Each structure stands twice: as structure tokens, then as C-alpha cells.
Amino acid sequence: MIPRAIKRLFHQASIGDQSYRFMFERGPTDEVVAIDCETTGLNVHTDDIITIAAIKIRGNRILTSERFEAVVRPEASMQPEAIKVHRLRQVDVAQGPLIRKALPSFLHFVGGRPLVGYYVDFDIAMLDKYILPFIEIELPNPRIEVSKLYYERKYGDAPPNTSIDLSFAAILKDLNIPTLPQHDAFNDALMTAMMYVALRDMKERGIRIPRLRTYDVFDPTGA
After folding, report:
1. Structural Rg of the chain based on CA atoms
2. Among 18, 114, 149, 210, which is disulfide-ready with 199 (CB 3.0 to 4.6 Å)?
3. pTM of the model
4. C-alpha 99: how far from chain center
């Protein structure tokens, strides 16, 4: 696998549309963008994006007024299991534009800011599938994975064989973040943004998330 830094340099030199060179600029200091995509399924090669959401974060402020949302018409068929998750049917997205029509607005919105996500590599891989043929580069943005930040705060000093739960629900619960209706791209991006702000604050203050020890488990027998 080519290291990301080397790939970034390659794309910077080979970008097809020079008007998108701003993607390699860092952007405003202390700004990142939380992103989420809903898809027709989980196969990057055969499935398509149906909704995209992105929300800017400046410092510890989540700027819900500065957001990007798009519902796009997929070329792939909606998988039944995916419909159960995000509750969007083929007919619900049939009037949306094809994703290549939404890409310019998305790319100008995120610019070169780092992208924050929950298993963000999947979302970026899905986006890159369309961005690469569009401007001949993959997204060069730095990536911030909230499950990794959470792992560091809770499990970074855990002994071997510790049970580890990196689920979205576990992170929300530990950080006392309200649960919004999930598998909606905007709601998921917003909850991810709240996770990022909380975890970054904990890291800056040197605070860890306590782990439940075996002797902390309530025993109704009193033993």
C-alpha cells in the first residue's frame, strides 16, 4: 500500500483540474469538517452514495449553520439490508441529481480541512470513487477517526485481554451525547462532530474515560 503522504504528493502533481488545487491548502486554522455518507450497501466497488452531510467545526464550536447536505441518485440498486438501516428507498432518491453534480459544491465546502468521521475511511473511499475520475485525484484531506480518539481516551492504557467496544452507541453513552435518529447523514455527522469536540477537549485536559473494572460490577448477592 502506498503511504498516504506519498500519494498526496503524487496527486498534487497530477491533479487534472487545476481549479481544485485549493484542496491541498490546509484551510482556516482550527477548522475541521465532520462528514457522513449513507450508501446503497457496504461494498465500495459496487454500491453508491445516496446522501452526504458535512458540518464545519471551528475550535470547540459545531457550526450547524455552515453545513453541506445532498441527496443524490445512485446508479446502483438499493440493497434491502441498507434500506432497513437508513429507511430510504429507491423512489425516495430518484429525483436527486447524480453525485457528479453535487461534487463541486462538496469539494468547495470542505476545501483542504481535515475530515472527521466514524470509520471515516469508508466514507472517503466511497467519495474517492467519484472524485478520482472527476478531477483525477483522491481526497488529499487529513483524516481524523473518532473511534481512534475514543480508544486513546478509554483503552490506551488498558491491560491485555481488555474487552473493547468501539461502537457508535458506546461512544455516545460514555461521552453523554444525546442519541439522535441514526443512519441519517446529517444526524450522524452532527453526533460525530459532538464526539470529536468532547474527545479533543478531554485530550487537551488530560482526562481519560474510566473503564468498568470487574469488581465494580454490581453483585445482587452482596458477595
Report:
1. 19
2. 149
3. 0.86
4. 18
Each residue of 34-67: pLDDT tens digit? 999 998 888 899 888 989 999 999 999 999 999 9
Please tell me the distance from the alpha carbon of residue 177 to that of residue 151, in angstroms, as a whole number: 17
Residues in Cβ contact with 119 at an 8 Å cutoff, skipping those fewer than 6 apart: 145, 147
Q: CB-based contacts of 1: which residues, under 8 Å, 6+ apart?
A: none
H-only helix segments in 60-113: 80-86, 90-93, 99-110
Q: For residues 110 and 93, what is the distance between their CA atoms, to the nearest angstrom?
A: 23
Of 216, 200, 188, give the one whose Cα is nearest residue 153.
200
Cα distance between residue 107 and residue 192, in whole Å: 20
- Beta-bridge partners for 31: 58
Report the DSSP beta bridge partners of residue 68. Answer: 54
Question: Contact at 8 Å (CB) between 78 and 90?
Answer: yes
Q: Do 99 and 48 meet the contact criterion of CB atoms below 8 Å apart?
A: yes
